Amino acid sequence: MKNPVYWVVLAGISIAFIQQGLPVRSQGESQSDNKQMDNITIRQGETLFLSCSQGDFVTHTAWLNRSSILYAGEDKWSVDPRVSLVTLNQDEFTIKIEDVDLTDEGQYICAVQTSSRPRTTSVHIIVQVPPKILNLSKDLVVNEGSNVILMCLANGKPEPAIGWSMLSPSDDSLSSDSEILEIPFISRNRAGVYECTAANEIAVDTQTVELTVNYPPSVSDGRDVGVTLGQRGVLQCEADAVPDADFEWYRDDRRIFNGFYGIEIEDAGAFSKLTFFNVSEADYGNYTCVAINKLGKHNKNFVDVEIIEPTSSTLLQVETASVLEMTSSDFAQTAFENNDLLEGPGAVQDGNSGTSTVFTPTCLLLIILLQLLLKF
């Protein structure tokens, strides 16, 4: 019997002739049987099983990948650890390839040598690869009015379709069905998160880019503010800006600093607050809030602090409250000073007449209020 290597070499030569479309004959000059199986489609990362039937009177068999011999009978010729023998008997010859990759795509041939003639079975392997985004624009910080280009590159098999969309906030008008999204003269309302999608029939891959748009401050219009003498007063300034604005406060043309004449200044993000803890006439004036960032400044917000003097009604309320607090004690003291005798609640006895006159609290309150009103 001939050496097994002989049969492997014969199988290789037979495959070469098959690929060239030439007839192949065994030692007995009998024509070989060639069989083409249907293509096998498999996804990247899965396990591939290759099987061919043996039949009676098989003397030698081998699995080949293009020009490489994977297995010759039970002997493994491939150095790839992913390739292994599953079954080898009179009925079938099966090998497997684990973790299939794109490089495993191509034609595979099972060559069988019988006692009469060689037989080959070939199959073409198609490896599908899910899409993967390989190159994506980084997060961007641009100034308002700039021209922006976002790029997204991906591979996969079948070739993936690539598209762009504005994810947050959602805006259907900002989308693209290509690898590139162009945004000319970008405005502040187009800042946000953009998503690139690469999809084929196997899977979908998505990645995002955050786009920040810088713009100069815009201070909200101010309004006149009135505060009462001796009370706490607050001026608040709001500015829309990216990056956040720094604030400066001015009274007329003079800058005010925190702690200046008992004034407190607090900045928190887009807001700045100026607080008077005890308003006096000296605080009257025009106050300006200026918002500044690296792109510019804005100071349209002028605030007039108008001191509110207490009104006559305010004074009346204060004096009335004071009188009410003193009514009971003053009435009792007056009665005792005139040696009057209190007989029951609200009763005063007149020593001269021997009769008693009743002064109820309600009458007394009306007399006091009448006197106060006459002052005005």
From TrEMBL:
Keywords: Disulfide bond, Glycoprotein, Immunoglobulin domain, Repeat, Signal. The keyword Cytoplasm does not apply. It holds the Pfam family I-set. It comes from the Eukaryota. Residues 23-122, 131-212, 217-293 form the Ig-like domain. Residues 1-23 form the signal peptide. The keyword DNA damage does not apply. CDD domains: Ig. InterPro entries: Ig-like_dom, Ig_I-set, Ig_sub, Ig_sub2, IgLON_domain. Belongs to the immunoglobulin superfamily. IgLON family. This is Opioid-binding protein/cell adhesion molecule homolog isoform X2. It comes from Cyprinus carpio (Common carp). The gene is LOC109071267.
